[in-house]
Specification:
heterodimer; A: three-stranded antiparallel beta sheet; B: alpha/beta; Rossmann fold; Cytochrome-c3 Hydrogenase, Chain A, domain 2; 3 domains; five-stranded parallel beta sheet; two-stranded antiparallel sheet
């Protein structure tokens, strides 16, 4: 006997995601289906516009990982135009991207993922003194006194007693899968609230360089952040001596929270859920496009996060990735709401992307997807025909495989604390732990990049923008390029074709498409679906917390899933998917 | 705002809040809410008498930037809002419950608070092809909005997509995206545009709705207190504009010295928002202060109002039909080409709006 369980909306994510699973009589997940349910049409909207404007449109694919599409977009135009950017602009981008990682990952852990493991209602019965003892045993964080936890508890109590649970309404509170002691629940809830406050300061790094957050500004050819050494307040920019000092301070305080709260909390919570290191493995293949160039995006060897593919868990061999090779990255639509002229089973490289929208799902309102046919707005991207997992776990494995010592040391420390082998990383909690580890690893690089920027300024190099190719009159009639980055959620690339100074084609293949896409022509599943089918038994089919844990371990970002045909034919088509 | 009656003091004591910190808080809040002095004096009482009001937040064709934005508010914070002002009974990004449990939470809140809850909407609504381009729990956004708006007290359209259609509605509007007020006609609607809106303005307007009701709105349903003047009017670089001192690329001496970004395409003069006053993220900066021109993200149709780096020789009229006479003081005489001057003169004479499109046509 099999039963279909539907979870829609999947909340505590970015965007609109629906998951359906089939369970057997013992409530084991036998098959799983992941569906993006919202499209906007940004591809069609971008067509015919000034390539220098594209970043602002593309950036609105996602307001959570708010800078990634802006960065990928300006890099795609720069690649097409062979447009070098100043060293300082590269440092500013590295700092902004790294700040995004730290911000995004911490907020994901506390605000999007924690409630899968932390029972807020249980925190009411915690002993504040015991909570303080627990907190001080794992960290030097100052806010750890019994009085502090008692205040947080009182605040929660008043909230719960009001009878209006607000965002906590109808959670699976009291579910047997919640295994933390009340004290750990109270500690984590206090940190949930602290992180909500903490993140406001982290984004100030974006605000100084890019003027605001969410959606900071970028510019093709560099950074729109002129450096002002003028001390006159009425005649200055945000990036002056005060701004630089503020960035240094923010990084320091930000990393204190990562080191003293986020890292120890992850390990402490994970200790109570060690069976979750044995389920939720995805497709066993991992891919990174690489990021954080030393000086120049074309110097792939200088990337702090290496580029490559790991196949079938084999860390001894890193396969090279070429974004321009038509045989490597292809997209399939066998179960997506699109048609290809060559048929539903054809795969196309993004430069040859063909896109014909064809919604063939059930007419709303509907109860179930027709999973034998098309069931998602997402396509299924593949590398050499294979599904790939992208994101923090892929990057940590890549750094580990390449012998990056801080990564090896930190990973070994965490594994030892948890008393699990390295293979435990191939799991739901392995993915969550990898996100925590990389937050520290990447955050620890930031003061160095800032020092380099300050040192350049001291030497008199104020350059942040290369104006040489700014004017479209300096561009060739036709060119194309690819802009890539490692977004917090994984490998991201935008492909652009420029004709007569305007965008003729624009395509993005983004992390959540790699992870969340539907079944391909060969019946291969993407990482979300594969992970849900790895050793998941639902304790209570009406409260499928297990599905949320594994889906949230990927940090879904389902902002946009769009493939809409124009009237002008294949070459004029533009596509963007999943943020 | 100095006196509190005995009842209010009792209430404060009950809540364990000191009079001094509460009054300080009221002062900050009054500015965030854009209150007049008279209303500011009434604020303490209004606050203490406020029950946490049910808020249902619907997310449609959006990028979650607006939900992220509200977490950045630092005067009236989201935490404060949730613990003291509102019961956020349905909000996809933050709520614990998923799937049917989430939908049930919404249903329960609506049933319990009929006619009293505030509906927040972020994202536009696609209406083409029966609305198949965006569904939640198998239902179209259109059906959800119509049903959930029915018993709402008021609707807050948060961000440029919900308020004006935003990016999804940009030409050629592939999914037939529309704003909330194109669908709902029989409810009070407050638009808080911006991509995203300024965080403190989001919470400030919500606090106003909860304490004093709907704030004074302009013809585009925007709170006048925050959208009444242009970014340009309050910009710290305005003196450079007035003197004709402009940056001509992103990294020249003028750019480094904080001169006006008008020639780099700044849309500050056409953009009604409080960025230059309120600034962003703790008052650290705003786009122009960091060195990029305003892209006009709180104006209707800003995505289709000409390139972000094309300088507006005259105010681009898209959000509202301003006659040139009304804005003559803004752009006249500075950095306008001779051609533009001709068009401006014509417009002034005829009280016609000028757009970048007009100027291009003349050039052609």
């Amino acid at each position: 006997m099999s039963q279909r369980i539907v979870v829609d909306p999947i909340t505590r994510i970015e965007g609109h995601l629906r998951v359906e699973v089939e369970i057997d009589g013992s409530q084991n997940i036998k098959s799983a289906y992941s569906a993006g349910t919202m499209v906007r049409g940004i591809e069609t909207i971008l067509k015919g516009r000034d390539p220098r404007d594209a970043w602002a449109y593309a950036q609105r694919i996602c307001g959570v990982c708010t800078l990634v599409h802006g960065i990928a977009s300006v890099r795609s135009v720069e690649d097409a135009l062979k447009y070098p950017i100043p060293v300082n602009a590269n440092l500013i981008r590295n700092l902004m991207i790294a700040a995004q990682y730290v911000h995004d990952h911490v907020m994901h852990f506390y605000h999007l993922h924690a409630l899968d493991w932390v029972d807020v209602v249980s925190a009411l019965s915690a002993d504040p003194t015991e909570t303080s003892r627990l907190a001080t045993s794992i960290s030097k964080w100052q806010k750890s006194s019994p009085g502090y936890f008692s205040d947080v508890q009182k605040k929660l109590k008043k909230f719960v007693e009001s009878g209006q649970l607000g965002i906590f309404s109808n959670g699976y509170w009291g579910h047997k899968e919640y295994r933390l002691p009340a004290e750990a629940n109270l500690m984590a809830t206090a940190h949930y609230l602290e992180a909500l406050d903490w993140q406001k300061e982290v984004v100030q790094i974006h605000t100084i360089f890019g003027g605001k957050n969410p959606h900071p500004n970028f510019v093709v050819g560099g950074a729109p952040s002129p450096i002002s050494i003028n001390s006159n307040q009425s005649s200055t920019t945000a990036l002056n001596i005060n701004g630089l000092q503020m960035i240094a301070n923010v990084i320091e305080r930000m990393m204190e929270f990562v080191n003293e709260v986020y890292v120890p909390d992850t390990i402490t919570i994970a200790k109570f859920y060690k069976d979750w290191f044995k389920r939720g493995e995805g497709v066993k293949n991992f891919m990174s496009f690489g990021d954080f160039p030393d000086k120049d995006i074309n110097d792939i060897g200088s990337f702090f996060i290496p580029r490559g593919v790991i196949l079938d868990r084999d860390l001894s061999k890193i396969h090279p990735v070429d974004l321009n090779d038509p045989e490597q990255i292809k997209e399939f639509i066998s179960h997506s709401y699109y048609d290809y002229k060559g048929g539903k089973d054809t795969g196309l490289h993004p430069y040859d992307g063909e896109t014909n929208l064809n919604y063939s799902g059930p007419k709303p309102p509907y109860q179930q997807l027709d999973i034998d046919k098309s069931y998602s707005w997402m396509k299924s991207p593949r590398w050499r025909g294979k599904p790939m997992e992208v994101g923090p776990l892929a990057r940590i494995l890549m750094l580990y495989a390449k012998g990056h010592k801080p990564t090896i040391d930190l990973a070994n420390y965490a594994l030892k604390e948890l008393d699990v082998p390295i293979t435990a990383m191939f799991s739901t909690l392995g993915r969550t732990a990898a996100r925590t580890l990389e937050t520290k690893i990447i955050g620890d690089k930031m003061q160095g990049w800032l020092s380099s920027l300050i040192s350049n300024i001291q030497k008199g190099d104020l350059s942040v923008h290369n104006n040489e190719l700014w004017s479209p009159s300096s561009w060739p009639d036709e060119c194309q390029g690819v802009g890539f980055m490692e977004a917090p959620r994984g490998a991201l690339a935008h492909w652009i074709v420029i004709k007569n100074k305007k965008i003729a084609n624009y395509q993005a293949v983004v992390p959540s498409t790699w992870n969340a896409g539907p079944i391909d022509k060969d019946g291969n599943r993407g990482p979300y679906e594969a992970a849900l089918m790895d050793n998941h038994q639902l304790l209570d089919a009406k409260q499928p917390i297990e599905i949320l844990r594994t889906i949230h371990s990927f940090d879904p970002c389902i902002a946009c899933a769009v493939h809409i045909s124009g009237d002008e034919g294949i070459n004029e088509m533009i596509q963007i998917k999943i943020g | 705002m100095q006196k509190l009656n005995a009842t209010l003091m009792d209430e404060l004591n009950r809540r364990g809040i000191s009079r001094r910190s509460f009054l300080q808080y009221c002062v900050v809040l009054a500015s965030t809410m854009g209150l007049s002095p008279v209303m500011a004096n009434q604020l303490p009482e209004k606050l203490l008498n406020t029950k946490r009001q049910s808020v249902i937040w619907l997310s449609f064709q959006e990028c979650t930037g607006c939900a992220e934005a509200i977490t950045r508010a630092d005067k009236l914070t989201l935490e404060n809002l949730i613990f003291n002002f509102i019961s956020l009974d349905y909000q996809h990004t933050l709520m614990a419950a998923s799937g049917s449990a989430a939908e049930e939470a919404k249903h329960n809140a609506i049933e319990k608070n009929k006619g009293k809850y505030i509906l927040i909407v972020d994202g536009s609504i696609p209406i083409k092809d029966g609305g198949v381009y965006s569904t939640v729990a198998g239902e179209t956004n259109l059906d959800i909005l119509k049903r959930d708006a029915k018993d709402a007290m008021a609707i807050v359209s948060l961000g440029s997509c919900a308020a004006f259609g935003g990016l999804p509605q940009a030409q050629p509007n592939p999914t037939g995206a529309v704003s909330v007020d194109e669908i709902i006609k029989d409810k009070p609607i407050i638009n808080i545009p911006g991509c995203p809106p300024i965080p403190n303005i989001i919470t400030g307007v919500l606090a106003h709705v909860l304490t004093f009701g709907i704030p004074t709105l302009d013809q585009y349903k925007r709170p006048v207190a925050f959208y009444g003047s242009s970014v340009h009017d309050n910009c710290y670089r305005r003196p450079f504009y007035d003197k004709g001192m402009f940056a001509t690329n992103f990294d020249d001496e003028a750019a480094r010295s904080g001169w006006c970004l008008y020639k780099l395409g700044c849309k500050g003069p056409m953009t009604h928002n409080a960025c230059a006053v309120e600034k962003w993220n703790g008052g650290v900066s705003f786009p122009i202060q960091s060195g990029h021109g305003c892209i006009g993200c709180s104006e209707k149709d800003f995505w289709d109002s000409g390139g972000f780096y094309e300088s507006m020789a005259s105010p681009v009229v898209s959000a509202e039909t301003i006659s040139m006479a009304a804005v003559a003081g803004v752009g006249v005489g500075v950095a306008a080409t001779a051609l533009n001057k001709i068009k401006k003169a014509k417009s002034l004479k005829n009280s016609e709006p000028v757009t970048i499109k007009d100027l291009k046509q003349e050039e052609a």
